[in-house]
Design brief:
Helix content: 40-55%
Strand order of the largest sheet: 2-3-1-4-5
Number of helices: 16
Strand content: 15-25%
Structural class: alpha+beta
């Protein structure tokens, strides 16, 4: 049999905690898989930023990317590698570049999801281009900003159409507030979006391949407490709805790793933010939920690397639109969209791969997340973010929540084997 190594590259920014956990758990798994006529093992390497020839072969079988949404050198290296070497990357760089929040809102409205009422505004200040003033004088239509605000309704949010991390977001309660926020937006192209008032539940879902984690979220809490530790905040049909919604969004845009925020009002979940090229993956915010997401990433990335999963050269939307045209209740259409995604993500093959080759992931991960090595990663991440006098306090805080996860995980594993 042929022996080969699948090399996984980590293209990282300021990430500290999860790459260390990812690398150490994969080493502890000590994988040697038989797939067809191959015996496969794995290696993980952090990708360096350096000059490259456009014809330089790519050494990696798969890259887990955390840079292309903002760092152009890595973006262009990955795009070159996809075209020239059929590299599989989480996430597809073209999907990230072209599918900013504006496009995702339009696409999911087209599929029938209850996205809040949203308007786009021309930039307050034109671009620095020699034709800008002439173009705006001829074709820029004067408008009453408050008319837009009233059409959307107050209160509302004004925010960049391609924003992230709450950059430039303002909650406005009146025409005066809206004008002040718009005047301050300069050259940014802004959305004005309905505020979902009176919601009774805020959730954030994170999809990694076909795996979806549903978490209760409190945007009013400090960053370290926004992801709430809660187990019974939705019922079965609601949980399935949120999973199907996440799979629909990710499958439509060809994303492997993305998050979605949704607000429940009168029993309806309104998705408000679901184009996140670099979802939160840090222990300092995810705490209790962090180990499960690291495990999900390990499973999906190993499957993609081992099977040499192919990147789609384009985005195929027609199957989703065909379902959208059917005269069906919305929840049935949403389930149909999600089934398309499950097929594209090879759910059956993924589950068989995990059952056959990764059955010990839970046991190895549980041991790691209770180890001094894991606590050292937590300490390193806290040290990078917190002032000196708070480092020990918050290290113990996050470590305690991870140990609570370890207890619930051990109980779950005991029940599943009992």
């Amino acid at each position: 049999m042929q022996r080969s190594t699948r090399l996984i590259g980590l293209s990282l920014g300021a990430d500290i905690c999860w790459p260390g956990a990812y690398e150490q758990i994969i080493r502890k798994l000590n994988l040697e898989l038989t797939l067809g006529d191959e015996v496969i093992d794995f290696a993980v390497e952090r990708v360096k930023v350096e000059p490259f020839s456009l014809q330089q072969p790519c050494r990696y079988d798969m890259v887990l990317d955390r840079l292309t949404h903002w760092f152009h050198t890595s973006r262009e290296w990955i795009k070159k590698s996809v075209i020239m070497d059929s590299l599989y990357v989480l996430n597809n760089p073209w999907a990230i570049q072209s599918m900013e929040k504006h496009t995702t809102y339009c696409a999911m409205m087209k599929l029938g999801l209850p996205v809040p009422e949203t308007w786009m505004l021309p930039p307050k200040t034109g671009p620095e281009h020699e034709d800008s003033n002439q173009m705006m004088q001829q074709y820029g239509k004067l408008f009453d900003l408050n008319t837009v605000g009233e059409a959307v309704g107050y209160p509302n949010f004004i925010k960049p159409y391609d924003g992230g991390g709450w950059r430039g977001v303002s909650r406005v309660k009146s025409g005066g507030d809206l004008k002040a926020a718009y005047d301050a937006s300069a050259q940014s192209v802004m959305h004005v979006q309905e505020s979902i008032e009176g919601y009774d539940l805020f959730v954030r879902t994170v999809g990694i391949g076909p795996q979806v984690e549903v978490m209760r979220y409190d945007p009013t809490a400090p960053l370290h407490a926004r992801y709430v530790v809660d187990f019974f905040f939705t019922n079965g049909p609601e949980w399935k709805y949120l999973v199907d919604q996440m799979l629909t969004i990710n499958g439509f845009f060809g994303w492997d790793f993305n998050s979605c925020e949704s607000l429940r009002r009168d029993g309806v979940f309104h998705p408000i933010d679901f184009a996140n090229a670099c979802p939160d993956f840090q222990v300092t915010s995810l705490h209790f939920h962090w180990p499960a997401l690291v495990k999900n990433m390990i499973r999906w990335s190993l499957f993609c690397a081992a099977t040499k999963r192919k990147v789609s050269p384009n985005l195929s939307w027609e199957p989703y639109f065909e379902v959208a045209r059917r005269d069906l209740p919305f929840r049935e259409r949403l389930a149909g969209y999600a089934d398309i995604t499950r097929e594209r993500m090879q759910v059956d093959a993924f589950r068989e791969f995990c059952d056959t080759h990764l059955s010990h992931v839970d046991e190895v991960a549980l041991e790691f997340f209770g180890s001094p090595a894991c606590k050292a990663l937590v300490h390193a991440k806290v040290s990078a973010l917190y002032p000196a006098h708070e480092i020990e306090k918050f290290t113990e805080h996050f470590w305690g929540l991870i140990q609570f996860w370890c207890k619930t995980e051990a109980d779950r594993m005991s029940r599943s084997t009992g």
